[in-house]
Automatic annotation (TrEMBL):
SUPFAM superfamilies referenced in this protein's UniProt entry, alphabetically: SIS domain
One GO-annotated biological process of the protein: gluconeogenesis
Reaction(s) this enzyme catalyzes, per UniProt: alpha-D-glucose 6-phosphate = beta-D-fructose 6-phosphate
Protein name, UniProt field: Glucose-6-phosphate isomerase
Cellular component, GO annotation: cytosol
GO molecular function list: carbohydrate derivative binding; glucose-6-phosphate isomerase activity; monosaccharide binding
Function: Catalyzes the reversible isomerization of glucose-6-phosphate to fructose-6-phosphate.
Pathway: Carbohydrate biosynthesis; gluconeogenesis; Carbohydrate degradation; glycolysis; D-glyceraldehyde 3-phosphate and glycerone phosphate from D-glucose: step 2/4
TM spans (from-to): none
HAMAP family given in the database record: G6P_isomerase
Compartments (UniProt record): Cytoplasm
Length: 451
């Protein structure tokens, strides 16, 4: 077991030459210098680089205090946010806490149930969640950096009303925690007006890089996970990302290797996990890389599979379909749980050959076999090793992917810190909804929809 999160591309060496690595090293070094000297595109969004060592300690203390209050006075916490304003918290809670967090008994969980809402516009989802809350005590953490995103704003209206009906305006305000810009946006105005406790998304940290700010930290702390250890993990990875030379700088190597593969026509990266609790880490990773690199008609399409589950749905395509992908496996080296297969007197299911072996050994064998099979099927295989399922290594993993993403975006020649493409759907939606200021577009769109 390694001491850190590590990157290993040895299984992909058949697809990459040493001279390609040598050549891209210079570009990766240049990208790193751009990042650290803040001379590249999007350089006003680099606050995440120093966050693990340079965060607001006073706010950190308030986050822990607020988490303590929510744990005491609420059976349910609603986390309202979308994209970077929810994926990191969800990834962390699913990774760090019980697989059935919300359904396991309170004696085991010890902390409030946590539901994520405002990440879609489904009335069914909202109304079912209202039923789940029932007449139980609840609080809301509304998270929106811009403070104007439609999906969370809609959910917030609904649940704020519910909270006010239950507790009255003054008490409801004490159960609403707003994480947003320090000065501007509709949510900031509302929070100031209504006196909600507020936390700040720093100006220079974009949504998808914000998991280590109050955006992620408050919900994660409410779940009972240790946010100090999470920050320590990020610090530890930051140290190596900033100081290690290319040959031993795992984040730089990952960024370099994926760009070499892209140049060879591998324009889809599939992140694969073998543990269900990594599902939302993959979802978080998808936004990080998708929004950072998918622009100017460029980028690697970030996809994800949960294995072995999806081997029985997507496995055929990965093994044998169009050869445009590579795979990055997030490998949890040590499962915290050991279940040993037992021998049965009559071997009706034919599984006695597994007697004495652990379920995790079987899982790892599936992983090793699949990696070899995919490699044989011309899917280059990369490995990110995660030593253990805890806060420290998750902090390392978050920072590893963030740093690699910045480097990779610069190697690709895009601004990894903006997301101009997201605005197109918003404009059309506002026009169709009749938002003031969008009258002309509305007419045009309605004509197109009618024709
Ligand atoms: O925190 P906000 O401003 O509500 O944004 C949520 C998400 O929406 C996006 O801005 C895309 O519209 C993402 O980049 C962001 O993570």
């Amino acid at each position: 077991m390694s001491k850190y999160v590590t990157f290993d591309y040895s299984a992909a060496k058949g697809f990459i030459t040493e001279s390609e690595i040598k050549m891209i090293e210079k570009i990766a070094e240049y990208a790193k210098a751009e990042l650290l000297n803040k001379t590249g595109a999007g350089n006003d969004f680099l606050g995440w680089i120093d966050l693990p060592v340079d965060y607001d300690k006073e706010e950190f203390r308030r986050i822990q205090e607020a988490a303590g209050k929510i744990k005491e006075d609420s059976e349910v916490l609603l986390v309202i946010g979308i994209g970077g304003s929810y994926l990191g918290a969800r990834a962390a809670i699913e990774f760090l806490r019980h697989s059935f967090y919300n359904s396991v008994s309170k004696e085991i969980r010890k902390t409030p149930e946590i539901y994520f809402v405002g990440n879609n516009i489904s009335s069914t989802y909202i109304s079912h969640l209202i039923e789940v809350i029932g007449d139980r005590d609840f609080s809301i953490n509304i998270i929106s950096k811009s403070g104007t995103t439609t999906e969370p704003a809609i959910a917030f209206r609904v649940f704020k009303k519910l909270l006010i009906e239950k507790y009255g305006k003054a008490e409801a305000a004490k159960r609403i925690y707003a994480t947003t810009d320090k000065a501007k946006g509709a949510l900031k105005n509302l929070a100031t007006e209504e006196g909600y406790e507020s936390f700040v998304v720093p100006d220079d940290v974009g949504g998808r890089y914000s998991v280590l700010t109050a955006v992620g930290l408050l919900p994660i702390a409410v779940s009972g996970a240790d946010i100090t250890k999470l920050m320590e993990g990020a610090q530890s990875m930051r140290e190596r990302c900033l100081n290690n030379p290319f040959a031993s700088n795992d984040a730089m190597l990952y960024a370099a290797v994926r760009n070499i593969l892209l140049r060879k026509g591998k324009n889809i990266e599939i992140v694969a996990n073998y543990e269900p609790f990594l599902h939302y880490v993959s979802e978080w990773w998808k936004q990080l890389y998708g929004e950072s690199e998918g622009k100017d008609q460029k980028g690697i399409f970030p996809a994800a599979v949960d294995l072995t589950t999806d081997l029985h749905s997507m496995g055929q395509f990965i093994q044998d379909g169009q050869r445009t992908m590579f795979e990055t496996v997030i490998n949890l080296e040590k499962s915290p749980v050991e279940i040993i297969m037992e021998e049965e007197e009559v071997d009706l299911d034919g599984l006695n050959y597994l007697a004495g072996k652990s379920v995790d050994f079987i899982n790892k064998s599936a992983m090793n076999g699949t990696r070899l099979a995919h490699t044989d099927g011309h899917v280059p295989n990369l490995l990110v090793n995660l030593p253990e399922q805890n806060e420290f290594f998750l902090g390392e993993l978050f920072y590893f992917f963030e740093f690699a993403c910045g480097i990779s975006g610069y190697i690709l020649g895009v601004n990894p810190f903006d997301q101009p493409g997201v605005e197109s759907y918003k404009k059309n939606m506002f026009a169709l909804l009749g938002k003031p200021g969008f009258e002309k577009q509305r007419e045009e769109l309605l004509k197109r929809l009618e024709s």
